[in-house]
Amino acid sequence: MTAQDVIVDARRRLRDQHGQRWDDATLVGYLTAGLARTRQLRPVLWLTTAGAMTPMATVTALSSELGIDSGYLRALSHYVVAAALTGEDDDPANAKRAAETYQAFMDELGARR
Description:
By secondary structure, the chain is mainly α. The protein is 54% helix and 0% strand. It has helices at residues 3-14, 24-41, 73-86, 93-109. The model has no long low-confidence stretch (mean pLDDT 92).
């Protein structure tokens, strides 16, 4: 799974398919934070079959491989959307939507609250 896979899904959810509101670099930054949060909450996802931790991917471009199973695309997309909405203060409904979307991230990840 690449960064672009997650960003395309997040842009669809944000209704910003053409990147007019959030540029790629901003969303890639949110994705990097989401990967780090995933590693904190579910470190088992980053274990090799030998039990060693794999290094977290360095996301520098949309083509960057994320190093996590594609089954977590939705979870990471939820994280990116929540982070993007958290930074928006022009619509009071965004705070509520951001909280709901972050909860969806937690639920998709299967993380304990």
